[in-house]
Amino acid sequence: MSEIQTRTMEEQGKPAASHILVVDDNPEIREVIYLLLGGEGYEVTEAANGEQAIEASAKYAFDLIILDIMMPGMNGYQTCVEIRKNSNAPILFLSAKSQEDDKMLGFSSGGDDYLVKPFSYNELVSRAKALIRRYHVYQGKNMPVREAASKEGTAERIISYQDIVLNETRREVSRNGQVIELTDTEYALLHLLLTNRKQIFSAEHLYESIWQEEYYYGANNTVMVHMRNLRCKIEKDPKNPTIIKTVWGRGYRCD
């Protein structure tokens, strides 16, 4: 495949459930993923390399990006970093590399989840649905904290803490009027902590609440990397955080 291709199995006239970008240099893997997710009602766009993926992410608003790591030319990590410049859609890495360091590098690049090849078909579909569901939930569908009138005169749900403003309606975080670009997972972490002030969340609680999967030993590192990335974006001094504090031996909280 030399060009970006979009396909859907939906009946004519019936809208697709969500739009997914599948990036892999192996056409057989792309075909398998298309059959699995297309069969679930998703619209699937395929890209054979990092350059095509970046082009597609700038052109379309995806609900999920499934990204291979080992590709010729630009690898998945590099592609993820570039995609994050114009998209906050959840990114699920697919890779034959199963070491913990590989996963941490994926999360540090801006990924939300990591699935090792060869993967279970049921697990891929389950992970995809969970990431898309969480992405849709955190696009504004949550409890209001206070309302403010927008320039258009409509009410917007706002959470303010120190110099951070989280706009639930727009799913937007800013500091002193400057928008901070967060990934879906980073936004979900910050939102959970800000709407549950003074409550301490363990890594296990955060993982099961945000990732919606059963906690396992390595998940602690997953939470830690995402928390570090979030702090680098919202804290004035990430090494001495004042917004998200660590309660040693117990977890994280916002006062």
Overall description:
With 255 residues, the chain is an alpha/beta fold. The chain has 8 helices and 13 strands. Strands 1-3-2-4-5-6 form a 6-stranded mixed β-sheet, with helices on both faces. β8 and β9 form a beta hairpin. The longest helix has 17 residues. About 5% of the residues have low confidence.
Quick overview of this protein structure:
The protein is α/β, with parallel strands linked by helices. It is built from eight helices and 13 strands.
How would the blueprint of this fold be written?
Layout (H helix, E strand, L loop, with lengths): L4 E3 L11 E5 L3 H12 L4 E5 L2 H10 L4 E5 L7 H8 L7 E5 L4 H9 L4 E4 L4 H17 L8 E4 L5 E7 L2 E4 L4 E4 L2 E3 L3 H11 L8 H8 L8 H16 L10 E3 L3 E3 L2
Parallel strand pairs: 2-3, 2-4, 4-5, 5-6
Antiparallel strand pairs: 1-3, 7-8, 8-9, 9-10, 10-11, 12-13
Helix pairs in contact: 2-3, 4-8, 6-8, 7-8
